[in-house]
Amino acid sequence: MTAVAVVFGTRPEIIKLGPVIAALGAAARPVFTGQHYDAALVDTFLAVAGVPDLKPALPGIGGTGRADQVSLMLSGLTALWRADRPDAVVVQGDTNTANAAAQAAHYLGIPVVHVEAGLRSFDRNMPEEINRLVISAVADVHCAATEENAEFLLRAGTPAESVHLTGNPIVEATRAILPSEFARRRALADAGVTGPDFVLATIHRPENADDPDRLALILAQLALLGRPVVLPLHPRTRQTISRYEVPVPPQITVTDPLDHARFLALATACTLVVSDSGGVQEEVTVIGRPLVVVRNSTERPEAMRAGFALLAQPAEILDAARRLLDPAHLARLAHTPSPFGDGHAAERIAALTLAAIHHTPAAAEPPVPVLRAA
């Protein structure tokens, strides 16, 4: 029987690969590395992906330094697949897990399928950028979410026949879990929100969460938005606030981390999202919400060009929010489709994966566009 190892270690990977696992059906062999190890952040996401009882294949990976994490996963996955060799390995995005899994499979001669291939920030200070470059160097099938992602790959010399425009499975993953009106009201009540005019914020990237001065400025800017702010607090951010006694303004309601369904319930109800997450940049385009991206750079310029997001430094949050919340701008967003695909990416990715195994042209429905060099 065909066996496809679908490898993930973090929450965004679990979310985006859930539809791919479903599309592969009996061929899927989910592998959870345990890179994100906090049960409060992981267990509910595994349940949503349809693998609620999946245990980490590599215990002890979470919480280690980046170099140790990649090396331990590389050796661990190599040993795992020498003992039980899959026919192909699917990785997603730009995590340490995806980097290690892609390398392990490549060195063992196993075809590597890269979901969300071709993202580039051109910022080598971003650890994810290095992971993307490594994965692109060893992948056999590149599943690009957008035309721009595909172009980046082609310009870098990636063989045109291996680059496929599939869309991003975040579109179907988000649509599948969009909350009912009852779920939305319950999530609002649990967060202590009494009306729809509020801001939902998430801050977790090292450039923000590990710098107490930068984090304090972000929180101060959130307090100036003139609306209640709900801040589900990532453990990393909570640790910095506690260690350095970073003040949390009274306008901000801190909650525990949210599962994906409750996060989307709040995101669909709020007026504005402020975040440093990569995945949230995609999700807001599906649910039609404006987003201030608090980062130094982004690998998802499509969300910016479509008008859903603005990139801002901490001191620029208030100004970016005012621009996004202009009534004319919001009216345009209401009629703007997501630039990340049509909701059939997982079907295309599954078809391409099986085709790579059997060395046959992919026969997916809808058809899979294959980009050719000009």
Automatic annotation (TrEMBL):
Gene3D superfamilies: Glycogen Phosphorylase B. Residues 31-351 form the UDP-N-acetylglucosamine 2-epimerase domain. Its EC number is 5.1.3.14. Keywords: Isomerase. It comes from the Bacteria. InterPro entries: UDP_GlcNAc_Epimerase_2_dom, WecB-like. GO terms for molecular function: UDP-N-acetylglucosamine 2-epimerase activity. Belongs to the UDP-N-acetylglucosamine 2-epimerase family. PANTHER family: UDP-N-ACETYLGLUCOSAMINE 2-EPIMERASE. This is UDP-N-acetylglucosamine 2-epimerase (Non-hydrolyzing). It comes from Catenuloplanes indicus. The lineage of its organism: Bacteria, Bacillati, Actinomycetota, Actinomycetes, Micromonosporales.
